[in-house]
Amino acid sequence: MNTALRIALIASARFPVREPFAGGLEAHTWTLARALRARGHQVRLFAAPGSDPGLDVTEIPVHLPALSTAARSDVSMPDGRWMEEHHAYLKLMLDLAGEGGRSFDVVQNNSLHYLPVAMAPAVGIPVVTTLHTPPTPWLESAIQTHGPGAVTFTAVSEHTAAAWQPLVPAARVIRNGVDTARWPIGPGGPHLVWFGRIVPEKGPHLAAEAARRAGRPLRLAGPVGDREYFEECLVPLLDDDIRYVGHLDRRALAALVGTSAAALVTPCWDEPYGLVVAEALSCGTPVCGFDRGALGEILTDECGLLAPADDVDALARLVDGTTRLDRHAARDRADRFCTLESMADGYTSLYQELAA
């Protein structure tokens, strides 16, 4: 029998967990918190200041510790942002290792920081860490302080689980899900769409180039995560056909995606999952992308076409064929493979096992 659990959900301290989201990690964390609460669990979200007040949020106190002039003059001093996050997570984990941890049955770590992993054995209750990225040196070193057995790991895709396999041999795959009711199927339209964080590794400039070569208008949406990249690499490509429409809230973004002929997904790194793929499919919008990371796990030939990594010409040649794919087949793939219910089932089952 499933029982209600008390869950501490640790988010990234870098961006608030609220709409419009800074990226897929924040969107996933918000969605997971709401899904677990809807199932009757008590969820306290530890997140950056400014997070959604509709959730039970405890702010992670991100601030630079008071340092003396002598300490600041040390040429080996780390970057201020690094210091802020280090002390924020250090305080949080010390609290959970003390009286604070007695309020919970399980800790779900959705941050990308090393301290929740390194300090997990001190907490005294099960700690689940979801692997959202390829291996990083800080997280690998944290795992090696006590071995993978002290933390239960999940991975957002088979691809990500395989990337971590040498160090984390038994990560359970629980794919990110989307609330398909919040991403309704749309009628399509004449333009292509690219959406996500505007940073080099997401490759929006390649989407712009592919759309131009395919002779199709393109709408780009998302937060500017790298201003220099945006100004130097993307702005010169914008015109009446290739437009940046800003950082949209979820409702406006779903409407844009649902009225698009196809979504371009152009990662310049091995995408660990690709939440935008699931969101596009939920809107009935087929995907035309680069075959990198986990995209091939999500897509089938009925709902998306993939070009070799970084091959803009090949991507452009696939656009017309992608726009002719059945929108209902795309939505059906989302309903069968990318649902919120499936994700919530996976996490709830794991938590119950650990709590027992």
UniProtKB/TrEMBL annotation:
Gene3D superfamilies: Glycogen Phosphorylase B. One of its GO terms (molecular function) is glycosyltransferase activity. InterPro entries: Glyco_trans_1 (IPR001296), Glyco_trans_4-like_N (IPR028098). The keyword Glycosyltransferase applies. Residues 23-182 form the Glycosyltransferase subfamily 4-like N-terminal domain. Keywords: Glycosyltransferase, Transferase. The keyword Transferase applies. Coiled coil: none annotated. Residues 189-320 form the Glycosyl transferase family domain. SUPFAM superfamilies: UDP-Glycosyltransferase/glycogen phosphorylase. This is D-inositol 3-phosphate glycosyltransferase. It comes from Streptomyces apricus.
